[in-house]
Structure of TNase-like domain-containing protein:
Amino acid sequence: MADAALPRRGVNLCTGAAATDCVIDGDTIRWAGQIIRLQDIDAPEIRDFKCPAEQALGNRATERLRELMGSPIIELTRIGSRDEDRYGRKLRVVSDGRHSLGAILVAEGLARPWDGARRSWCG
């Protein structure tokens, strides 16, 4: 069951701590006053990247997530018993009402399914 079905809003990249309803990176958004980690994927880092290839792919994933967040409806769904990650971010599957946005990023080669293990994006 969805936590929230929200009407379409303009979605930008987060540019500071005060930014709202924006994309932080390829697997994290700030939405309705909370930081949301896309529960079903792992995307490359854009800040603490380990190599230029990770940064480049992370930038592409971030921009694509920003585009996908422009869907007319965005649903946030909690799956499983875990509500937050160790950083206090809410864990949610984010969808357009039909498809997981994370699954779209995975299908496009911009992220990988989250399996609980951190792995390098650098080869």
Observations:
- The first strand starts at residue 2 and ends at 7.
- The CA atoms of residues 12 and 68 lie 11 Å apart.
- The beta strands are 2-7, 12-13, 22-25, 28-31, 34-38, 41-42, 73-77, 90-95, 112-113.
- The radius of gyration is 13 Å.
